[in-house]
Amino acid sequence: MRKVNISQDKFLKDLQGRTFSDVVKDSEQPFLAVLEFFNNVERQRRMEESEIHHDRPPLAGIVRELESEPTINQFLSKVHIQKNKRLRQAIGVVVRIIMEDRGWQKTGRKGSLGVRAGSNPSQPSHNTGGLAFWFIRAERYVLAEGMPYKSVRERCKSLGFPVPRQPSSRK
């Protein structure tokens, strides 16, 4: 599948992306590093594989690598509660733009990436468990033409087995 390139201009032309112009224009924010990170065909492939093969949000396929990027990790580890939150949200928009350009659509559900530590105003918000250190949850996606594999829930239903309880989803 083709690589999707996202520039600052493309991001700011997106209806939701333009609401994060503060992140794009803030020289302290590592937004250019975020774009450079996501403008990689192998990472974009792993984002899709996360949904298809692992039944996890696209961000789950690359979040550890993303959080290991020095400039991104350094920024998120500082106590800028609002700025950190805005960067994480802008990253979610970058993921959406890529996924939609590659033929996916949002489900309106979130998937878990971590378990948040207790709130402490002298520390940045981080996790104590799960896959990610800085991200709690991320949007789930489906292929516009349909998924190649059935979910466990769908398979149970088609075989007449008890359907597993749907976990509650926080939005």
Overall, the morphology is: globular
Structural class: alpha+beta
What is the number of helical segments per DSSP (H or I, 4+ residues)?
8
Average pLDDT confidence is 92
Q: What strand line-up does the widest sheet have?
A: 1-4
Largest β-sheet summary: 2 strands, antiparallel
Low-confidence stretches: none
Order of helical and strand elements:
HHHHHHHEEEEH
* Helical amount: 40-55%
Question: How far is the first residue's CA from the last residue's CA?
Answer: 31 Å
Number of domains: 1
Beta-strand residue percentage: 5-15%
> What is the CA-atom radius of gyration, in angstroms?
17 Å
The tally of beta strands, per DSSP, is 4
Short structural summary:
Helix content is 44%, strand content 13%. It has 8 helices and 4 strands. It starts with 7 loop residues before the first helix and ends in a 12-residue tail after the last helix.
Descriptive report:
- The chain is α+β, with helices and mostly antiparallel strands and 171 residues long.
- It has one domain (8-145).
- 44% of the residues lie in helices and 13% in strands.
- The protein contains 8 helices and 4 strands, in the order αααααααββββα.
- It has helices at 8-13, 21-25, 31-38, 41-54, 63-68, 70-76, 81-101, 152-159, and strands at 104-112, 114-116, 127-130, 137-143.
- It has a two-stranded antiparallel ribbon with strand order 1-4.
Give me the secondary-structure topology:
Layout: H1 8-13, H2 21-25, H3 31-38, H4 41-54, H5 63-68, H6 70-76, H7 81-101, E1 104-112, E2 114-116, E3 127-130, E4 137-143, H8 152-159
Antiparallel strand pairs: 1-4, 2-3
